[in-house]
């Protein structure tokens, strides 16, 4: 167990490093001279002189070899310096630090909602298989899976919030305010998971150990919860890990929709202006969060399933 | 549905057939959700095709005299804030919304197929380097990568397609590689090699056809999520630029006028919903019939 945990930790560290290389490479990969673009974005009406460009290039270290540039960039990032925004000249890290809690509370709450909804509905669905509760839940799952989160959010926002006057559209980013958007996101995202978990629960209920447990006289609910659920939970856990990535990637869309003052809406405004340090910071923070979430999920899987320990050791 | 699941269980129990794709369309047609999906998809396709040659009104020219008209007999789905007919714009935008999804899937399929096959068959250092690169791409969530690419290239419809291909190709490359490696020791490939068939012909006539078919089926499972991703990014204004019609972008325009013209929201919303639903139903059928798993 300790060995496989350490191995997974080292793997996560390497992945984070590789992701950082990818994030850094965005700047050299982008067409055009960054120094020129910075000067242009700070003073759009003024055509920069070659001397200005050369001076800024030297300041930014753009005339040094690429590996040196990467290491210098990485060194600054590790110390928490994500550069300054090209538009405003303000440090990106400050803005990120201000906005990250809002994003985390929204996405975290949405994740909790969707896991609970999916767990509950899948259990009911599997217990009442092919009877009316199951049919209703399957219809919900099919419809929810066919509605992209932003579309469901848009409709819910217009009809529930604006139409019926429940909650607020302009949200402040506090945890309490996150409840309604998180509920909307969570209910939509739970649809796909309900389908997945229901299928693996039913698979597990048809297996030998479930038949054995029932043959020994245990109640169906007990078999479902004690025997089927732990075995069906593994693919569900993996799906949650993937979904963390989808939520992070979808945060610009979601936050734009709910006018949420988080990382995503910050990135969206930067995308239009091609404000590179901000976009880089978003990609880097998302990558690190994703790596951390995958790590947590995998460690949980190792803890749940002893077979994974032997396979990896 | 219980029949579906027992069929699924049966499909899982069977040993993997060599080419389980024979007569795929008839089998999909006899699958309950597969048939619904095919009919719905066919209707949407017809809607998009008709939209490229004929629409009831001119889709892109404003006519302020009829701005924000509620649905009536002349404008079946109403008009938007500049008096453009909503139905015409839905029809004209359909080939862009649906075609984009197909182009993205075609892109990840082509890149994944070539990259994965080359990597798997080359072996050695080339394989290791190529797969490490793919792993790095896979270590980032797809949409985050897409935003990174849009950041590099700037907004725009073509850039959006490139971004979504970059976001997802690595997963297909990995799958293609493992299938290519698996096929190297297949009896027919070994027999061909012993018979002195040149390497390129073994690849082109023994390995690639089956591999491409399987990868194509797996790629088609992602149709629903791709339609969703494209409409979501267009909704943000990162895709099709005005005045061209696209469902996601139309939704974004509709937001401003929701209180006076809710029909503007419903048109594109229903179209996106039906497209993803049709794609999901077909995917369910394919999963049951072929016992393949796509990317979740």
Report on this model:
The complex is a heterodimer of chains A (313) and B (296). Chain A has 313 residues and is mostly helical. Chain A has helices at 2-29, 34-42, 50-60, 66-78, 92-127, 132-146, 149-163, 179-205, 208-215, 220-257, 263-273, 276-304, 306-312. Chain B has one domain (4-294): MetI-like (MetI-like fold, Orthogonal Bundle), CATH 1.10.3720. Chain B contains twelve helices and no strands. Chain B has helices spanning 2-13, 24-29, 32-53, 86-122, 124-138, 142-153, 157-184, 187-194, 199-220, 223-235, 247-255, 263-290. The two termini of chain B are 21 Å apart. At the A-B interface, helix 1, helix 6, helix 7, helix 8 and helix 10 of A face helix 1, helix 5, helix 6, helix 10 and helix 12 of B.
Topology overview:
The complex is a heterodimer of chains A (313) and B (296).
Chain A: H1 2-29, H2 34-42, H3 50-60, H4 66-78, H5 92-127, H6 132-146, H7 149-163, H8 179-205, H9 208-215, H10 220-257, H11 263-273, H12 276-304, H13 306-312
Chain B: H1 2-13, H2 24-29, H3 32-53, H4 86-122, H5 124-138, H6 142-153, H7 157-184, H8 187-194, H9 199-220, H10 223-235, H11 247-255, H12 263-290
Give me some keywords for this one:
heterodimer, A: 313 residues, mainly alpha, MetI-like fold, 13 helices, flat, B: 296 residues, 12 helices, 72% helix, 0% strand, disordered N terminus
